[in-house]
């Protein structure tokens, strides 16, 4: 069949919390730009709090 294919995905197992903390430390100590800016982090926190309020 034309235009038909199979996409293969791969997964690299890693510790997301460790990566988040390493990025924070690098931003603080090495002046590396953060992966997520404060405005985006606040927006994500608001969504998480809204979900929590809706659940409970």
Protein traits:
56 residues, single chain, 0% strand, mainly alpha
- Give the averaged pLDDT, no decimals: 90
Based on Cα principal axes, name the global outline: extended
Specify Rg, calculated over alpha carbons.
Answer: 18 Å
Separation of the first and last Cα atoms: 50 Å
Number of helices: 2
> How would you classify the helix and strand content by structural class?
mainly alpha
What's the order of the H and E elements? Answer: HH
What's the domain count? 1
Helix share, percent = 55-70%
Poorly predicted regions are: none
Measured by DSSP, the beta-strand proportion falls in under 5%
The major sheet is characterized as: none
Number of strands: 0
Describe this structure in words.
This protein is mostly helical and 56 residues long. It has one domain (16-55). 59% of the residues lie in helices and 0% in strands. It is built from two helices and no strands.
List the helices and strands and how they pair.
Blueprint: H1 16-30, H2 38-55
Brief characterization of the structure:
The protein has one domain (16-55).
């Amino acid at each position: 069949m034309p235009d038909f294919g199979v996409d293969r995905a791969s997964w690299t197992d890693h510790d997301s919390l460790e990566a988040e903390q390493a990025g924070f430390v690098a931003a603080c100590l090495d002046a590396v730009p953060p992966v997520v800016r404060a405005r985006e982090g606040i927006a994500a926190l608001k969504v998480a709090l809204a979900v929590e309020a809706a659940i409970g």
